[in-house]
Each structure stands twice: as C-alpha cells, then as structure tokens.
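Run log // design_07
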C-alpha cells in the first residue's frame, strides 16, 4: 500500500488482513525460537493484553495527569529495587526497554562527570567488556563517549586487570554484564565494584537479561556470585521487565543507588514556548499500557511464580547443556549462570554454522554468534516441551555435517561464516549499511522468511549482503 486508502476499509477486513500478514512471521508459539519473544502461553498473554488495554491511551508523559501510571512506575521500581537488594535510597525509572536503559546511564554519567570536573572533560571514555551488549556501543556513539573495550578470559568473563589498566582521568563509567548476552556468564562484579569504588568511578551492571531471573536462580541454590546492590561499588542496574519478568514489550527498569545519580539524566527545559517541560528518560510520550502491564505481570506472577519459572528454566537449561555436551565435538562456552548460553564446535569437520542450517531445515530459528562462531540459546519455560526434539535434531544435524563437510560452503553457513571472518570489517559495515538502505529505503520489499540453505528464498536485503560479501571475497583471492 503506497498511500492511505481513499475510503476507509471496514475494521473486520483490516483485522483479517493483519491476521493474514502474521502468517508470514516466524511462529513463536511452537517454541522453536530462542529470542525475540518471551512467551508464557496464551492465558498469560491474554492477561497482559487486558492490563495493557486498560491503559492503552494513557500517557506517562505527565505524571500529574495520570497518577495511576506514576503509581505503577513507582511500584515497579520499588519491587525491582527490593529484588536486587537495593535499599530505600534506590531511585529509578521505567524505560521502553533494555536499549533505553543502556543509553541513559551513559548520558547520566557523562553529565555527572562534566558537572564534577574542575578541568573540563575533553573526551569522555567508558570501559566495557568486549561482550557487553551492543546497545552500549549505540550509547557511546549517540552521546560522544569513547568505548574502551576490555578482552574476556577463556571463561568468557571480563579480565579485571585489563579494566584497571584502562582507567584514566577521562573515564566516566565502567559497565559489565550479569549475565552477558552472548555467553550468559556473569562478569566479576565484586572485583569490578572494588575497583570502581576505590577510583570513585560509577559502575553500571547490565542485568537486562538477568535482573528478573538470577535472584530466583540463586534462591534455587545455584551458585550466583553477587551482582546487584549488595556489591558496594555498583551505582546502577538495568533489568528488563519485558524479558524474564514476562511482561508486554516496552518495559524495563533503570535503577540508581540514589537520586544523586539519577538526576543527571533528567531533561528540564523552562523556556520552551510550549510550556515548562521536564522528562525523566528518553521518550516524550510514554505508553501507559506497557507500564500497567509490567505492574500487572509482577503482581500476578509473584515471587512464588517467578521461582517456579526459574526452576523450569534451570531444569530445562541443565538438560540442554548436558545434551549438547554429550554430542561429540560440541562445547558450551564459559560457565553460563542461567538459561542463556552458546555452544561451538571443537571438531574441524563440524562447521557450527552448517549445523545451524540443519536446525533451520527442521524449523528452528537459529541465532548465530561470532568470535568464536557459535549458536545461541535463550531458554524459557516453554522450551521444556521441546528440549528432546531440539537435542535429537541437533544430534542428527551434527552427523549430517560430519558426513558432508561441504555443507559449510553453501547456504547460510557460507554467508555467516564469511561475514564473521572477513578481515576488512569496514567493508562488512559498508555492505550492512547497503542492506539497511534496502530494508528502510522507499523500495523496501519483504519476501517470505528464509529457512535452511535455500538462499533464493531469503530476503532481498540479506541476499544483497551475501552478494556483496561474495564479491568482496573474490576480490581478496
Ligand atoms: C544484556 C542485554 N542488555 C541490553 C539489551 C537490549 O535490550 P532491548 O532489546 O530490550 O533493547 C539486551 C537484549 O537482549 C541484553 O541481552
């Protein structure tokens, strides 16, 4: 459709069309995907829709107009702070998601550093493990802060000594993960906290994934090193309600140890002809539905419900991990703390991306990692029902690749392998930029989902990327 229809289409018909288009999407309800959707089943989803719908039109832009939303936000912040062992001084906001909760601390700590420096801060820097979520790269870029990466050890945790060595007078913050997105491991938060405290540097823990799961994993008796406000040097934590708290999309919490940190992210403008404006976070209009649904999810699931969820997730994760490690040649990376982990192949004859293709042929949506090449899993309670099937498909996928090593040079395996290993990263970036132009330019066409090694059916943009990289590869030869 290139323009708004001259004459409105009846609602029923529009709804039918919406339904039809959903048929082109990946089917998350059959639990064959491992990210993007945190789904507890239709009953819980219907409940969230009801809560969201009740506050569908309300806007948290003005907390005086919608006091209900301010109450929900306050209570979600307090519930999260108490779960993460914060005291009454902890102050925070709800944001639209993990990315906003990663953007804002960079802004706040940059502003704080500027405000406290006698000599002006020339080039602010932040220190982060190379495994930190990419949202922090975005934050560094948006707010003009230099990202200083620190390598990880063989156990996939950030190297503490390297962090110490990277600190200088431009350092505005340190950030680490609990746990990291790629490998699901918790960085050495206690040690980093000691360094941060002794050097007077703010320290953020990105617990967007773990904030609503690790506290329950710990209660179940698994070993979870302290990662929250119990660690004295931790000055802020992000925890997403729309991930392992199973709320509707558009909800995260950003908590600071006290208001003296939080206040640096506030935006206040008193001279705007539109009136005096004050905003606590990135967005202007803030959807009431997402805030109400977050409050509703925490209340209805409750501590006992989250403990049950964590138990199912951990039992299922243990099953997955044991099953994967039992397959000859496969290895889990690091020591994952919860239901997020990655595995790679140590067998030269088994290309892990080709194994990914085999899984896709069986209908799984596979997330691929690079450096090292690996496949990724994020377990939710719904995966309990499909663990055996996944492991059986994985076993037969590995066998197929071992029998036919040439599978590594065709299909998506070849493309992802090439993308991950092309040494000229600037050229890869250029090709990805072209792909973005294709996807978001005026001519965007979205063909059906691609699966398996059938590149012909892939989205045009992905094919473009693949073609570009193929050309690049030919040039190198
Ligand atoms: C550790 C971590 N931080 C931040 C984010 C960004 O969250 P969102 O996708 O909600 O913006 C993610 C997303 O997976 C994550 O895993």
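design_07 sequence
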């Amino acid at each position: 459709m290139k323009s708004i229809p001259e004459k409105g289409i009846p609602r029923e018909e529009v709804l039918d069309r919406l339904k039809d288009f959903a048929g082109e999407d990946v089917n998350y309800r059959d639990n064959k995907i491992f990210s993007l959707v945190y789904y507890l089943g239709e009953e819980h989803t219907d409940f969230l829709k009801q809560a969201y719908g009740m506050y569908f039109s309300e806007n948290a832009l003005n907390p005086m107009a919608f006091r209900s939303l301010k109450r929900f936000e306050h209570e979600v912040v307090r519930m999260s702070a108490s779960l993460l062992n914060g005291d009454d001084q902890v102050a925070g906001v709800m944001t639209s998601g993990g990315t906003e909760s990663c953007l804002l601390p960079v802004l706040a700590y940059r502003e704080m550093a500027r405000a406290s420096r006698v000599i002006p801060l020339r080039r602010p820097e932040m220190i982060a493990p190379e495994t930190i979520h990419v949202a922090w790269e975005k934050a560094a870029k948006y707010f003009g802060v230099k990202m200083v990466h620190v390598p990880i050890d063989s156990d996939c945790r950030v190297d503490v000594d390297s962090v110490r060595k990277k600190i200088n007078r431009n350092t505005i913050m340190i950030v680490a993960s609990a746990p990291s997105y790629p490998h699901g491991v918790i960085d050495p938060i206690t040690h980093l906290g000691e360094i941060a405290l002794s050097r007077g540097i703010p320290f953020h823990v990105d617990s967007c994934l773990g904030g609503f799961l690790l506290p329950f994993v710990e209660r179940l008796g698994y070993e979870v090193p302290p990662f929250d406000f119990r660690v004295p040097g931790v000055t802020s934590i992000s925890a997403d309600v729309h991930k392992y708290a199973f709320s509707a999309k558009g909800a995260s919490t950003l908590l600071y140890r006290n208001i003296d940190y939080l206040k640096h992210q506030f935006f206040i403008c008193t001279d705007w002809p539109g009136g005096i404006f004050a905003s606590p976070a990135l967005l202007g209009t803030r959807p009431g539905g997402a805030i109400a649904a977050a409050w509703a999810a925490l209340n209805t699931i409750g501590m006992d419900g989250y403990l049950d969820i964590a138990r199912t997730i951990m039992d299922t994760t243990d099953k997955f991990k044991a099953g994967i490690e039992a397959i000859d040649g496969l290895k889990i990376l690091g020591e994952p703390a919860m239901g997020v982990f990655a595995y790679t192949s140590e067998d030269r004859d088994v290309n892990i991306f080709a194994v990914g293709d085999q899984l896709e042929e069986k209908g799984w949506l596979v997330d691929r990692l690079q450096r090292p090449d690996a496949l990724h899993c994020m377990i939710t309670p719904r995966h309990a029902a499909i663990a055996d099937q996944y492991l059986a498909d994985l076993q037969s996928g590995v066998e197929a690749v071992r029998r036919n090593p040439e599978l590594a040079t065709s299909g998506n395996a070849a493309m992802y392998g090439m993308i991950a290993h092309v040494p000229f990263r600037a050229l890869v970036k250029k090709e990805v930029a072209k792909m973005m132009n294709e996807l978001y330019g005026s001519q965007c066409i979205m063909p059906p989902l691609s699966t398996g090694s059938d590149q012909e059916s892939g989205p045009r943009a992905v094919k473009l990327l693949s073609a570009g990289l193929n050309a690049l590869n030919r040039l190198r030869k």
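The first strand starts at residue 91 and ends at 95.
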